[in-house]
Write a structure and sequence with these properties.
About 40% of the residues lie in helices and about 15% in strands. By secondary structure, the protein is α/β, with parallel strands linked by helices. The protein folds into two domains: about 90 residues, Leucine Dehydrogenase, chain A, domain 1 (Rossmann fold, 3-Layer(aba) Sandwich), CATH 3.40.50; about 130 residues, NAD(P)-binding Rossmann-like Domain (Rossmann fold, 3-Layer(aba) Sandwich), CATH 3.40.50.720. A six-stranded parallel β-sheet has the order 1-11-8-7-5-6, covered by helices on one side. A three-stranded parallel β-sheet has the order 3-2-4, sandwiched between helices. The chain is globular, with a radius of gyration of 19 Å. It binds guanine. The site of guanine has 9 residues, from strand 4 and helix 6.
Length: about 300
């Protein structure tokens, strides 16, 4: 079997076109322009690229964006003051503090300082709690993007066994909470594997859908995948590569070339989950702006 390649870039573009139309409508009818604020601390090269791409997407969707680039040495108190200013700013509907933060700053305190109504990352405990309870709140962008990607490529997870590899607070845990809900587009049997799992392949070989989100290049090999499974690769590993202009290339958590001969559908890296994360961030932000405008 040769897998169908799930084109996340194309699906994300369709979502971004819809968001742009919604933004135009909100401006016409309510005079509100969706605004997203970014706080970037330090110069982690991956974070710089992620934030730049998100800012570009905002501009293309007709959103305003606000950026604070703070030095690596900024104090937690100073960072909290910037969050408080964005919390109070009526032109800002969403706030994104790019993670990871330097070790002298508590990510927990920073995330908890964001107004949950502006927490378009869905990382605030209020939104995490709502996700688990199945209530309306902001869903983290990457898990939401994985779900949307599955649905828009004809792979409804309902009744399927989804094996998630990785238990991060950004991807693995919230994705498990999302897909286990008794709701359309979810209702899956969910297994979460992690560093404490003995022989991960024993579980992934049972999966109808594998989501690889452990941050280890090519860790999901052909022998770990059932014939005809759907494979979603959340990995974004930077591998040094002297042949490229940037000096690195991106590789997923899945051995793509080997697994594509076994899976029925697979996402590439880049061009799979990554673009979906940005599309879902825009979706969350327009939702925040609409709630603000009473639309
Ligand atoms: N770092 C890696 N992914 C993310 C994300 O989705 N949001 C934020 N704020 N930081 C990240």
């Amino acid at each position: 079997m040769t897998a169908r390649i799930i084109d996340g870039k194309r699906i994300a573009e369709a979502i971004r076109r819809d968001v742009k139309e919604e933004a135009e409508k909100l401006r016409r009818e309510k005079g509100v322009i969706p605004g997203l604020a970014f706080i970037l601390v330090g110069e982690n090269p991956a974070s710089v690229v992620y934030v730049r791409n998100k800012e570009k997407a905002c501009a293309e969707a007709g959103f305003s964006s606000f950026s604070e680039n703070l030095p690596e040495t900024v104090s937690e108190a100073e960072l909290l003051r910037h969050v408080a200013a964005f919390n109070a700013d009526p032109l800002v509907h969403g706030i994104l503090v790019q993670l990871p933060l330097p070790t002298h700053i508590s990510e927990q305190r920073v995330v908890e300082s964001i107004d949950p109504r502006k927490d378009v990352d869905g990382f605030h405990p209020v939104n995490v709690g709502k996700l688990l309870l199945g209530e309306d709140g902001f869903t983290p962008c990457t898990p939401a993007g994985v779900q949307e990607l599955l649905l828009r490529s004809g792979c409804d997870p309902a009744g399927k066994h989804v094996v998630i590899v990785g238990r991060s607070n950004i991807v693995g845990k919230p994705l498990a909470a999302l897909l286990v809900q008794k709701k359309p587009g979810a209702n899956a049997v969910v297994t979460v594997c992690h560093t404490g799992t003995k022989e991960i392949g024993r579980f992934t070989r049972e999966a109808d859908i594998i989501v690889a989100a452990m941050g280890r290049p090519k860790a999901i090999t052909a022998g770990m995948v059932k014939e005809g499974a759907v494979v979603i690769d959340v990995g974004m590993n930077r591998i040094p590569d002297a042949a490229t202009k940037s000096g690195y290339r991106l590789t997923g958590d899945v051995d793509f070339d080997a697994v594509k001969g076994i899976a029925s559908a697979i996402t590439p890296v880049p061009g799979g989950v990554g673009p979906m994360t940005i599309a879902m961030l825009l979706k969350n932000t327009i939702r925040a702006a609409k709630a603000f405008a009473g639309a």
